[in-house]
Amino acid sequence: MNNVVLIGRLTRDPELRYIPNSGQAVSTFSLAVDKNLSKDKKQEMEARNQPTADFVNIVVWGKSAENCANYLVKGRLVGIQGRIQSGSYEAKDGTKRYTTDVVASTVEFLEWGDSKPQGDSNSKGSDFSDLQDFHPIDNDDIPF
């Protein structure tokens, strides 16, 4: 079984690319996921200049990749569900490099701010009308 669920904050803005010939969208970004540390252990690690979070590379494909690139920015809280994918490549200096990424099947936008989506200067950050399968509801319609 290969299933990953993460909640964390983006460490950089997503990078969007399109695969030549197919035109398939792919977005990549890094996610900082806090380690589950006690307050004392966290302070101890910070004092020794050790990381208190894990940094995970995320890959998203298709329409979700475009949505991530258009609506997510560094620092935003997101939930990711997907699978681990490992690989390798040869660097320019001839050494073999190994990679481990999470290929996201679902990206949940857990936090929205006042920043505007890229390329739309008249839209507010809470206007999600062009997101696939997103339908805003009135809070009065929620049964609890």
TrEMBL record:
<dbReference type="InterPro" id="IPR011344">
    <property type="entry name" value="ssDNA-bd"/>
</dbReference>
<dbReference type="GO" id="GO:0009295">
    <property type="term" value="C:nucleoid"/>
</dbReference>
<dbReference type="GO" id="GO:0003697">
    <property type="term" value="F:single-stranded DNA binding"/>
</dbReference>
<feature type="region of interest" description="Disordered">
    <location>
        <begin position="113"/>
        <end position="144"/>
    </location>
</feature>
<dbReference type="InterPro" id="IPR012340">
    <property type="entry name" value="NA-bd_OB-fold"/>
</dbReference>
<keyword id="KW-0238">DNA-binding</keyword>
<protein>
    <recommendedName>
        <fullName>Single-stranded DNA-binding protein</fullName>
    </recommendedName>
</protein>
<dbReference type="InterPro" id="IPR000424">
    <property type="entry name" value="Primosome_PriB/ssb"/>
</dbReference>
<dbReference type="Pfam" id="PF00436">
    <property type="entry name" value="SSB"/>
</dbReference>
<comment type="subunit">
    <text>Homotetramer.</text>
</comment>
<dbReference type="GO" id="GO:0006260">
    <property type="term" value="P:DNA replication"/>
</dbReference>
